[in-house]
Structures
1.
Amino acid sequence: MIDIILLFRDALYGSLVIGLACSVLGVYVVLRRIVFVGAALAQISSAGIALALFLSGLGVEAFGLTSQPVALSLIVTLLAAMLFSGGTRHRLPPDAKIGMAYALAAAAGILLIAKATAGEAHDIFLSGNILGITRRDTVVLLAISTPVLLLHAVFYKEFLFVSFDQETARTLGYSVTRWNLLLYFTLGLVIAFAMQFAGVLLVFNFLVLPAVTGLLVARSMGGMFAVAVGAGLAAAAIGFSLSVPFDLPTSPTIIAVSGALAFIAWLIRLAQRR
Amino acid sequence: MTTLVRFDGVTLGYGRHPVLTDLSFDIPEGDFLGLVGPNGSGKTTILRAILSTLDPIAGTVTRAPGLRFGYVPQRDQVDYGFPLKVLDVVLMGRYDRIGIGRRPSAEDRALAVSALDHVGIAELAGQPLSALSGGQKQRTLIARALVGKPNVLVLDEPTTGMDLVATTQILGLVRDLHERDRLTVLMVSHALNEVANYVERIALVDEGQFRIGPIGEILGEEVLSHIYGIPVEVASVGGHRIVLARRASGRVQMHD
């Protein structure tokens, strides 16, 4: 069994990197109650890939962006992240804006890929192919995730303050808009790269469930980050190890393990309260 | 007496829509000012202008050099779902002094414990914020405002949602901080009767009208009746002022 798992070790390493990066950012996603920003950004990222494939099929080059679906996807995702990071003093409620973006991006992705040349062959870009992660892909994921995680480690207290109490942060001279923009930018960056390998659903899972697991059992921010990272890595490792030898679809297996870990955390919380 | 904040012909609003016009007043050092008005009257707008988080549409707001505010936000602006310990929350009041990208030092932690001690809850430093009562949460936020050594303590609706005991204790603590530490205090509230017995001056804001002055001057029946547009009576019970709105039948009801 281990031999079979080792055969896909590059994919396992890639999954662990995605699990690690998304679990850390997921703490802010869950605490700030913006879980659907994660879903919407992942969906927008996939629509960006579909747009690149569609334009490429039409022979449109757009400064070479259409031959690099990931580049166009990244640009679209970061633009959306900037839009979502804006203030709440608008006529449209923030959740309505996010819901609208999610629905439109999902529909656009399907429509564009349906009309793209050899669209069926590109479906894999939208749903992800976690087993197809190569060593090079893992290096790319690490190259993106490492600076993002370092940035979050260095500016932990700034991200925490503007997430916990924006108004007070503002009175102490913090540029809440800029910190929010940076937070959403890192979120968009990680999602855009993770999306190509993990797909919308698995990225969404890594952004939400490990952080929820952490929130259920941790009594401090450090504890929440530690449990979230542990749950994300464990879900990736266990899910991967179960799916390969038992011939199960990998992403749903990882998500099922994430769910099981969150359930265990909930039971622990119940036991703590008694 | 040094003027800490000066409003000079200030018009405030959002976008191009003015909410309050031609505001002119001072907040001197050592003041204990209550900014009172119903919800939606513009209190928070004035507060934001004082705190420099809202620029005036017209006029000027001048602040004394080096002026530092200790801000206690409304309770619903803080998310108690974060798994933060009380000490972590208080430390936030020093974040700007610590500097971007730097971690709190042992001295910062000692100051945070001292601020908690100052508001009477030092023993709760290691407790999760979510486990505290409403009054304890408010004391935590006051400690956070104090730990940065402010010139002015600003409290936005500090007693909303609290019972009588917690309200009395919090307002008593604020008065102690003013009297004991000679701290300038600005307290924003919709509850005139709560504020009236603690502050030294009152700024009343309602439907675009603004009136500021010593408590004895503003809490006159004629002034209040003019501002609120209904007959108002000011009663005294056990040395406490109570503002009552006179009903058409001649009976009175309490004005919150």
Note: Chain B has a mean pLDDT of 89.
2.
Amino acid sequence: MQVYFFHLMPYGDLDIAEADKYNSAWVTIPNTNFDTQKGMKLYNRYIGELELADQLGFDGVCVNEHHQTAYGLMPAPNLIAAALARSTKQAKVCILGRALPLVNNPVMIAEEFAMLDHMSGGRIITGFVRGIGSEYFSNSVNPTFSHERFYEAHELIIKAWTDPGPFSYQGKHYQFDYVNLWPRPVQAPHPPVWIPSQGSKETIVWAAAPERKYTYLQTFSPYPLALKAFNAYREEAQKMGSEAQPSQMGWAVPTYVAETDEIARRELKDHIEVFFNKFLRFPSIEMRLPPGYSSISSTKTLMELKFKNRTSSTIDTLIDNGMILVGSPQTVRQRIEHCQKEMGFGHLMAMLQIATMPADMTERNIRLFASEVMPHLQGAVKPQLRAIA
Amino acid sequence: MRETMVDVRGTNVRMLEAGTGPSLLFLHGIDGPSADPLLGELSKNFRVLAPEIPGFALSPIPDWMMNVGDAAYFTMDLIAALGLPQVHLAGHSIGGWIAAEVAIRSTHALASLSLLAPAGVMPREAPGHDVFLLSGDESVRVLFHDQALADQELAARAGDPLDIILQNRAGLARLAWTPRMASVTLPQWLHRIDIPTFIAWGREDRILPFSTHETFVREIAGAHFLELSGCGHAIPVERGAEVARAMGAFMNGAR
């Protein structure tokens, strides 16, 4: 198994009492609640935490993209990745991912990733996503074109990476008379593409297709839902004539370790509850699922699954439904080993900093996880290396 | 009302039809095809044709329809497909915007134009609400000034299938997501409308602010304007009978 540190880079200094005056941590919460002096410290602290992970032997460090939110301060994740490309030495630098439909120039995404591939010495892993529903409010992009733009932008980026330039690309949403990347990417035929998702069937089928075999990354889900998604990925791959390898599946999960189960739970409680109840708060289903963002049937399923009778989360409910990993190193290790056996993933993306978790606590978590949990996992499942089609 | 399907060059739309008399094509508002008592009242004196805008309710959106301009050309094809030589064209909200976009392209087939709180022009003041963020009952309540009528509407809609509600929102988003419910260029071309035009607006409209009527009234020569005090965005429901009578008198004069 390969082990990564996935950082969301939240605005950890959010004044929760103040934020409670608004019904959202996304798009509509006034940015007067953001303190730039604190912001400067946070960016440098968070980048330092990822650099520490590299030094401690993590297989990769991960960043992602969200807009206009206290949940994560990386509207441009490639900027963070650029800093990490220089300051990390061994770890893969993973951008999981960039939201393709939100841009009008996907070629620029291809260019940025190609630059990062050079600066990191071929260490990047890219992620392609559609962005969550709220991004369509903050980026003004029509959500009814989300799927079309994603597929088209994906095709254009892969072509830009692999077809000799210059060539022209004429699509429904994107038209370019000249596509001719300088630089081309280092990794051949192109950097790995991973697909983070919360379990959409359409996405799973698309990622598993034999011409792609993209690594599927399950994020923030109750255990049964994650298990269902991995099973679906394996089944789809099999239907299409291939056997999904562990290296094609990754699980992203908030993780906290301390000396004992009791201490770990006590220390994590406030931060994880604030994370799920405040940082992941949206004013309405409509912001999460804008019209046309998903098919009508998927929208109905999501409304049913995620939003009906939604009560606030407690650390106990989060543990019970398998949303998080928390406890002594032994407890967490055993739980991961159990989950790995059931789910079959080859990549574990541990989210080791959560919401308001302060620097000292985060560092203890990273170090304890790295020394007491990670060594038992790394190499436990040998992800089969494969050429990227 | 009688329900028919119309094939417009391979795209099928569902259409409701009632009454006899001069033809009146009505394009519905943001919540889809229901627009009573307005249409019921109008059908006493007109042959009312109320198609679904593609993307709404049971009429799928064709892949090529990417914006309101496409919807306008589609409406012109629909009028041709129905074989209507001279038709009174009317629309509410998003439908009013499409009707205006038809009229700036050509008034050749039109006897008159009626715009009820039409979208299409950027409001001077920020609207009170983003229609795409409204949830549940609130999304109906903000359409009305008279909350007793909103209560009735909510009761009437209680059994509406979720599929239809989601479809209507997706249809609206396709045409009106960016800029919200408006076109940057429409004001530039409203002057091309050279047929009798009737405009009505609710003073208490919380979706498209009342002051937005000024651009339409200023740019469309000789437009007849009806101000509706104590009325929100849902004109066809909130003041349907009254507006139908005023529209009817106007259209009769326009013939």
Note: Chain A touches chain B through 18 residues (CB under 8 Å).
